[in-house]
Every structure is written in C-alpha cells, then in structure tokens.
Amino acid sequence: MNLVQALNSAMDVMLGRDPSVVLMGEDIGYFGGVFRVTEGLQRKYGEHRVLDTPIAEGGIVATAIGMAVNGLRPVAEIQFADYIYPGFDQIASELARLRYRSAGDFHAPVTIRTPCGGGIRGGQTHSQSPESIFTHVCGLKVVMPSNPYDAKGLLISAIEDDDPVIFFEPKRLYNGPFDGDPGKPAVPWSTHPKGEVPEGHYRVPIAKAEVVRPGSDLTIISYGTMVHVAQAAAAAQGIDAEIIDLRSLSPLDEETICASVCKTGRCVIAHEATRFSGFGAELTAIVQEHCFWNLLAPIQRVTGWDTPYPHAFEWEYFPNQARFAAAFRVAMESA
Amino acid sequence: MANTSRLHLPPTPSRPGERPDFSYLQISAAGEVPRPDVNARARDIAALSVEMVRVLDEADDAVGPWHPHLEAEELQVGLRHMMLTRAFDDRMQRNQRAGKISFYMRSLGEEAVAVAQGMALRPGDMLFPSYRNQGLHIVRGMSLVEMMCQLLSNTGDMCKGRQLPVMYHSARQRLFSISGNLATQFPQAVGWAMAAAIKGEDHLAAGWIGEGSSAEADFHQALLFAAVYQAPVILNVVNNQWAISTFQGYAGGEQRSFAARGPGYGIAGIRVDGNDFLAVHAVTQWAAERARTGAGPTLIELVTYRAAAHSTSDDPSRYRAKDDYAHWPLGDPIERLKRHLIKHGGWSEERHRALQGELEATVAASWKEAVTHGTLNEGPRLDPDLMFEDVFKEMPANLERQRQAMRAERSGESWRK
C-alpha cells in the first residue's frame, strides 16, 4: 500500500469495527478527499458516518468536540495543515484542555488528520509544517508517520486514543519515499519494506520512537519526510548513522533518543519546519540536558529556513542532502 | 456636496450623568405576536425575529397565543429557582467583597432566561452554558454547596482547582464545562446535537452566549453547521445590552436584531422578552418541539438587561447611567412573575417574604458547609499533585518527572542528584 491507501485502510478498519467512529471534513465524502485519503468510505459506510462539511475549520473542530462529548469518535480532516489556524482556538483552548478543566468529567477523543510539509510545489499556503505550534499546547498528542505501515498503525492508535491527537501526514510521502532529490524519478512504496501493510487491525503505539537504522558514528533524530532524506544523506556521505524516526512528537520517547545520543556522542536533528522555536529546539534542549557529558560535538540542526515556504525556490528551501552533509561535517569534525 | 464616506459609530443611549434612554428598544405588546406551527419553515416565519414574543401584560395577566398554560405549582417552582439564583448571587457578591472568594459574576435581572429555559427542556437534553446562566445549574439540581466549593477552589471543587470561579460543570446533570473563551460552546452544542441525530436519539442540545460574543466566528459557524445539517439544537443569544462597557450596537445589534441572524442562515429566529418567564418558557418549548420533530434548529434572542456589573472586577458607573435598571422597560423578571402569581397563582406577599427568608437561610447554611472543605486562606487545601492529572488520560513520563520535581521543590530539597 502507499501512504494514502494505508490511511484509508486504517479508517476503513475503524469505521467497520466501531460504530462511534465518524469522519468529517471538506471534500472528504462523495469525492473522497483532495488527496483521495477517504476514497470510497462514504459509499461504504453512508453519509451519516462520512460527512462533507462547510469550509470552516473552526466549525469542523468545534462540532467534532461536541460529537465526541456525545459519545462519537470523530476523525476530522483539515485539508491542508496551512488551513488549520481558523480552528486553533477550538484546538488549543477547548479540545486540548477539556479533560483538564472539567477534572476528567468530560473528554473529547477527536483525531485531527492534516497533510503537511512541502515538496509538492504548494507554495507558502500549502507546504507548512506547523507541528511545533501544537507540541507546545498541553493536552494534545502530536504524531507524524514517515511510512505506510506506521501511518496505518498510528492512525488506528490515534482513533482509539481517549485523548485528542493531531495527526500530521507528510504529503510528499503519500505516493512514495523521497530522498530529497526532486530530479530523480519517483519511487513507489511497493519498493520499500514499510510499504508492506497488513489488511486488518493493528496498532503502532503512540509515544514510541523507532530506530530505523542502527549506527555508531552519530545519531540523527527526525520524523516525517526528513527520515528518508537523512538516510540517503548519511549513505551518500558514508556515515554510519543511527537514525531515529520519532513518529510521536508528543508524548516524546526521550529514552530512545537519549540512549542513542549517549552511545554515539554526536547528534543531528532534522525537520522540514522552520528553525527558530521549531521542534528541533526542544529536542536539542532535551539531548543536552540528558547527554551533555557524552557529547563530543555541538548538536546540529537541519531545518527549513526561517522564511515562509516560497513557491519558486522550493528546492533551495527544502532541507536537502547538502544541508545534512554540512551538519555532518560539524558534528563529526569537531571531536 | 462632497461625496465623502464617514465612519459610523453606533450610539450608546446613555452614559454616566445622562438620563437612561431605552427608546431604541423595539417592543411588541403582550399577546400580539402570532404563534406559528412548530413545523413552520424558517423562511415563512422571519417576522418572529424582529417582533418580541411577550405573554405577561401590564396588568400581570398572561395573554395571547404564546401563553404556556403552566400549572401554578410549576410557576411557583420557577419563581423559587429565580429567587434562589438571586439570593445565591447576592451572597456570593458580598463574599467576594469580603475577600472570601476571588471573583464572581451575578445574573441579576436575567434570572428568567436560565430558569425558564432550563425548566422548558428535558433532563436528557445537553446544556452548553455561558458564564452567566447559573439558573440552569440550579434548575438541574446542582447543590449550592457544590457550586460554592467551585467558587472557593477548595477540596470539594469539581474542577480540582483548575478553573476560575463560576466555570461549573456536571456530566451527570448534562451541564457542559463552562469556558472562559467566549462563544466556543456554541458550535460545540451543534456538534453534540449532530451526534444525537447521527445516533437517532431525541435529545437536543442548547447553547447560550451573550450578544457581545455573537461577534465571534464561533457564533456564525454554529448557525451555519446547525442550518446545513438541520441539527436538533437551540441556540440562545442573551441580549443583555452590554458586553462589559460596550453597548450591543458594537456587536451589530443596531442595524438588525440578533434573532434576525437566524433567517439569514435559514434558521428560525425568534425574539422574546427575556424578563417574561412565561414567554421565555413558551418560546423555548416551541423551539424544543421543532428540534425534536425534525423541524430543525432555532435561534432565540432573549432581550434582557444586565442589571449588575459584568463581574466583581467591573464598575459600570464608569460607563453607563447609574439608575438605568430602574428605567428598563421590560421590568424585573422576579417581580413580574411574583405579581402574576399573586393575581392568578395563589401567591401572596407573605408567602413571598417567607420564601425569601427560607432561601437566604439555605444559602447561608450551604456556605457554612462549603467552607468546611476549605477556604481561600485556611482549612483543607487541594493537593498540588492534582495539577498534573487529567492533562492526559494517563500521565506521560515527562509530567510524572515534573510532578516529582514539584514535590521535591515543595519539600525544600533539590530534586537534582
């Protein structure tokens, strides 16, 4: 399966197993979503389970909260992560804190799916990676898979979770892994081991990172599209990197991260989002707090530039293998 | 003449030192507004959104097609709930002034809204209150002690010390958790109602906001989603004329009534005398029947007056005429129902006085009990460990570490090795 089919399969499984699961969002019903993630699900489960909604992200999140309070498990799609801001008050002030403010009397098990990231010629309104805005909000779980197998298992975990989950889908990975070089022919998920996705129900746990490649030279901490770029960059530079795919940003699997960096003594952190106050800043702080005496070199960050995501300069903006190579150099040389 | 556009600034009828002026208010005579069938289409009854449904007339009689013909006993219960709400408010106001609680918000002059609406709905209906609907909690039987413990953030606080005073909740009594972020509950109520319809239940949801916060996007999205899915929901705008210091003209009330937003979205909009217990009850029952019979949502504008300050942190003498409430043309909801019951419901001044004394004693006794669970400065205190609970269903490792750190900090030890 590709990543789109894996997500579709997760929702298909959950709609079939649990009558309280409903999907809602712009264009997701009859049409099956602009990225086809919900294709066929309205036909299969009916218009009351898979709802087309008005273009009103605040209304989508708010009504999802109300539905969840009334016993449903809504999975709301925000068509692009760039469009999530009109719903931000309902997410940050309401969804995230309902359990807390009502001392557990009310809770809202809402999953918000949203495609993020660039590499698809989306310009500054269809390419953003706003994950750190949400990791900064107490009470939200934030996840981002990097492959079809994890995407399905994580989405099932998210839907079954009694806490709200913001589920970021790196849209450049929908149809295949991507090593950061737009000049190369596209590679389908069928060539990748994580494109092997079981049909039925399974979970990938939230709050658990995966070491996708063991190594001894340095640790790369990453998630989403950058996991693949990091792997290709390390291979190209001949670096024996230990690569960690976080999968969950909040709660964070600090144990896996710190065990690896304490072992290698060197750390590169990579995300597509802008650098300043990005999630990499939190990771850097955690690594230095726990691994300071094991560090052999300054922690390096590979990120997008601190500008909006430009349409014409997409590949100068996108964190590519060259940016990794520069980070590797500092991380390896200053020993 | 020069063709120059000018910024229009909605007028505020009376500021400090001026005579109160309510001539802007459009009022229909009691009994004058027709009562359409509950299944009438929104577009055919748009007139309801500009007129004003009233039942109690100047002679304290109940007149016209909206007369709900409630039993005298039920009206007496309504009177009692309103009086209890006011007695509770008065005492909590004084407690705040005496430094016993940090903050309070009275509903003085608006008691009929929450009490009559709460009584017109069924126990299975889900209520999404704003911060000035304490009559709903009283109608649903939340104990005064429970409410007071919330105000005190003491060991009996349902919110475990996490919310400002008056932000009550009760899942069991179907009273949603009150938010300090205005209007957010409005579209949430619509979502709750949508779920009821998806599940095929006949419960409805009702939400309340003030006319001021109807300016928020949440209000408009609530109306839109309610209209699109014809959700079984009652959306109530309590037009008490003031958003802290800002007159309702700045929320858009000058050009069009708030109820008139309804027909614009394809929703029945109805404007009602919010200080007329009978009219509020009748209109709410009508809207509830619409929702339950699949005739769709209703937007109700309850025209009332915020007789007191916005909150204990507010001083209205700085922005509005001092004796304004005495001139408010729709009178006082408790006085009006009382006079009606004296004339028609076996009530009397003596019984009224006796009830008032009984309710004040109840409030005083409840306070005595509430403070045994702790006060602001003395007595039992909530365990600060609770701060870390309920952020998530299960506490993640980082919060557990922070909880340990806070414990060490409190015990005076360094938590670092």
Q: Could you write a compact summary of the structure shown?
A:
Chain A is of the alpha/beta class. Chain A contains twelve helices and twelve strands.
Largest interface: A-B, 44 and 44 residues
Residue runs with pLDDT of under 50 for 5 or more positions of chain B: none
- Counting helices, strands and paired strands, the structural category of chain B is alpha/beta
The profile of the biggest β sheet of chain B is: 5 strands, parallel
SS elements, strand count of chain B = 7
In sequence order, what are the helices and strands of chain A, one letter per element?
A: HEHEHEHHEHEHEEEHEEHEHEHH
Q: What oligomeric arrangement do these chains adopt?
A: heterodimer
Specify the CATH class of the largest domain in chain A.
Answer: Alpha Beta
Portion in strands of chain B: 5-15%
According to CATH, what is the topology of the largest domain in chain B? Rossmann fold
Number of discrete domains of chain A: 2
Individual helix count of chain A: 12
- What can be said about the biggest beta sheet of chain A? 7 strands, mixed
Helix content of chain A: 25-40%
Kindly report the name of the CATH homologous superfamily of the largest domain in chain A: Thiamin diphosphate (ThDP)-binding fold, Pyr/PP domains
Return the CATH architecture of the largest domain in chain B: 3-Layer(aba) Sandwich
Shape of chain B: globular
Radius of gyration of chain B: 23 Å
The tally of domains of chain B stands at: 2
Q: Return the average pLDDT of chain A rounded to an integer.
A: 97
CATH superfamily placement of the largest domain in chain B: Thiamin diphosphate (ThDP)-binding fold, Pyr/PP domains
